[in-house]
């Protein structure tokens, strides 16, 4: 499907990119990041306008986020049904719920571009769990801006090596995600160690 959609980019331009980013934000599998890379490459070749590609990708993503949020708020029960069925979707829902509970609006921002598999489920859960719309929208706007600028910019800069750049971008995203998790765990351990030291000190002072 990726090859077929790639051939549509120079024909339909921003519309096909907008559709891909919109659907991907609703947990419908779409090669949206790759299509943004392709859009950037076609901008570099002069076949598409930069403004239309950026606005198409960004507009589709924001609309998809908002749709997911509203779906979660209006009918969040489908998430519970999805979680009971097991498999990959259940694992993503469980991870997204834990991520959202711990980080709130920051989880919306990070799941737009760094932990992107969690993004659609953060949208649904944010609406179902009552996350404030203003906070959700702020995380969505800033996170999608990073996603769009990153991938369209990479496609524009390395227009002759799209396949290699797509693989490289995936590796970098995985590396960054690993670093974020590592630093997060390190911070948690440091806080736990400090709390332990304070308890030991308090006990020694009262002894």
Would you summarize the structure shown here?
The chain is mainly α and 207 residues long.
Descriptors:
207 residues, globular, mainly alpha, single chain, 10 helices, 85% helix, 0% strand
Explained architecture:
- The protein is mostly helical and 207 residues long.
- The chain has one domain.
- The protein has 10 helices and no strands.
- The protein has helices at residues 2-12, 14-24, 32-44, 50-75, 77-84, 87-103, 105-113, 119-128, 133-157, 162-206.
- Helix 1 crosses helix 3 (32-44).
- The radius of gyration is 20 Å and the shape is globular.
Structural class by SSE content: mainly alpha
**First-last Cα distance:** 70 Å
Query: Unreliable runs, pLDDT <50, ≥5 residues?
Result: none
Helix content: over 70%
Number of helices: 10
- The radius of gyration over CA amounts to 20 Å
Q: How is the main sheet built?
A: none
Number of strands: 0
Strand-residue proportion: under 5%
- Taken in chain order, the helices and strands follow as HHHHHHHHHH
Mean pLDDT: 83
Overall geometry comes to: globular
Q: What's the number of structural domains?
A: 1
